[in-house]
């Protein structure tokens, strides 16, 4: 079987100018980055404001398992399939982070015959957005330490600096460090640590901004830490929001590429889906909706995290509504949720599948709770048996759920036509009544309780004493009307990663809150959240190489 | 008077496709990065190997002073002037580092009507080369700490890791840090520190590589540190040179832009001029020599550092010879060398000028020692008086030196025509007999002594006990046949930055050596060399902003 990179390197890409022409873009609307990548103008959305919006389809999934669900692959395949059935479609995806690429095999560019291309560039430096975010983040960090070094007029408490440096790399040695050692010429010593770039608040801001001005305003509202008197200090107090915005003036422009079947794809932004909202940028999604009659987009992890945040955070910041949802599952992953260990997944096991369906069921209920029409996509794997597939179909029929088998990895758009047709039909019947989980006017605690109860199925929440104090303090600061962004394990509906399927009778422990006032949400931590990954014993990088003629090998 | 950025924003740029066409480049030879930047293929040099080389003109200067010399501005202006007199010329420059842009006003894009454009992009992220170098550098650093964390099969001594992480930022708090704190999940604690990206050995390697293979080979030879038994450990021992080369596959491609007068300029690479060799890439210079009948290029700091390294290191690695040298000076800077404080430079002072000429004289002797023809460029400032200028001209006539006044900041190429004509005449008379300062077969100590004696005018060198041990150890390792790269203050011919003019009767103190085996030289440290700058009390970033329509203000 061919690998993703082999399939990618055999593909026939159109010049990006041709893709741009097919989208009726004029030369002022886009800039080339090489022959197969482009940046769209950040003014394009405004220019197209009179055009009606295309239908927005959100692709989400069950709780992820090591078996793999293929959410990005289905997103790309579905976009290709819609084009195949004559619906002008644009895909909107997140851009991958370089760090994990070096660490473990896997990217966010889809797979097989449902990939976005050029996959090497997209998985490496792409058009430099993550590098620009790293620069802006670290310029701010340097300004903070410089401010303290130069006399600390703002009385920043060096023990209470919340804003960390970032690096787009898996580098565990930077998780906890001490900076500023070596005497008065080397700054003021303090404890610090690096996050991976996608965990930067600036990444979340870039993805939630409607334009460059909005971006600058949000940056000025980042809380970098607290004074000795525990008053919050904002970026605007340091007066560097102009310089940081300048560093992001190109990064805010959405990137245009194409899939292996030449379907246009806008790939832009990629915040963490735990301490941030895990969706591509508002500019990407909304620009795609102006350029296509249909937009297929995705959110991180399962529906409990990514879709909830897409619907409660992103659609609010961008002031738009989705038209339908796709919930992706695989036979393998459902069997894992039903208790089968990873090594036994190739064996038929309808009983385990049946048990695992409960996980899917909960996510379906969540989407129903949002009042959105949906289609279930069962993403095919070669080891799926006839009995297993029939069981799922029967189960869906019994519950009157729309379901489609997809085979987009192997067949590209052709493998997603059933899904595409069912979706178009579902959207056309248009019976949606979009309702969010909470109101902005709810207190922060009420918002957390509503999500825990209705989305996770928890009986209760348990607030640590720190979280209780923070809830009061944050409300006092006037931050109570912001959405909450739950940082919970992606593997379980609960906060315990080992509870698969549909756990019941549990509480969600709320350890700590963090203000992302620039991004415009309050992060709620339900456990230890790793914001700087490490490399494995045998990093994927060991297999990577580039041949004499510049061809990349071993990337995937 | 207009600022550089105001002049730049009023300029009329040609589409980069037009510049590429004028250079007879076909579509496979270049890729666009926006409408006014491009990357040239790293295969272009090879493709043009049958074409004769253009004449290579190196622009260097007296020892820099706070008064400013304008070496980059003269380089750009001279390129424009040569085109004006009908000589097809391509300029080859270094790319600026983002860190200093945020810190203090000043970039490496020339000034006034002798700038390379788009100056905002060039001074910010440009085509991402520095970001790619940062990524490759930090991927290697993460691999080193991961190797130790995962069991340390290579027995890397955590106290003897020479390879540091980098950031393209002025961030003094990162100069001396402790990483790996926080227990077994967070790596192995050790002392560490960040350099600024331009101080990365990978930057020097990129600039000294003749192609992608050469780059990979050089990367595999980086010494990252030593075992507990003090044996050097190379990147090839970690087997990650393939992945690092992959990260640099686009960064190795030279960047094509244009000047304010639409003269083509190749801007590529920018290593430090103290712990590295301070020149743009070999690929940039040699590609420019294939595309133009004349190439104007520059080297960092004064002739004692930049030109010496250009001639002893870069021309060896690239196997080429320059055809002529321009030595830039200003009346103001010469007066500073003659003892005038910065605040009194506007007053006429022929006596001080006369004393300061000794600094110029020493650099002239150095270039004569290399056997190269040269022209002195006196870069005009509005405060220069008639008497001062006449004194310099008389002095040059007396010594039979070619001299030209340039006014390229205010007049662009027009202000450099005298210089251009004298240079063409000088090159045509072709009486050069290029000879380097030392032979590769000389011992490391002999190489250091030859540079100190003939280029700096020192009586002797003093070796610290550490340096003595290292000289023996490095020779033992088989590194003795590499060129040496002197890390000395740029402000003085001596190793004492306060000794201006032409100091005599001094020794050069050699504190320490560092192996840059990948780059292919031994760094010789003559004092404390700062490899991570800090921000000033009022960083330039405070004035920077971007308007609603994306226009940058306050950058310069």
From TrEMBL, chains A, B:
Binding locations of ATP: 65-72
Pfam families in alphabetical order: FTHFS (PF01268)
Domain of life: Bacteria
Catalytic activities: (6S)-5,6,7,8-tetrahydrofolate + formate + ATP = (6R)-10-formyltetrahydrofolate + ADP + phosphate
Enzyme Commission number, as recorded: 6.3.4.3
PROSITE patterns hit by this protein: FTHFS_1, FTHFS_2
InterPro entries cross-referenced by the UniProt entry: Formate_THF_ligase (IPR000559), Formate_THF_ligase_CS (IPR020628), P-loop_NTPase (IPR027417)
TM ranges: none
Protein's UniProt keywords contain ATP-binding: yes
One function term, GO molecular function aspect: formate-tetrahydrofolate ligase activity
Presence of the UniProt keyword ATP-binding in the record: yes
NCBIfam families linked to this entry: PRK13505.1
Protein name stated in the entry: Formate--tetrahydrofolate ligase
Species per Swiss-Prot/TrEMBL record: Ornithinibacillus xuwenensis
Gene designation per UniProt: fhs
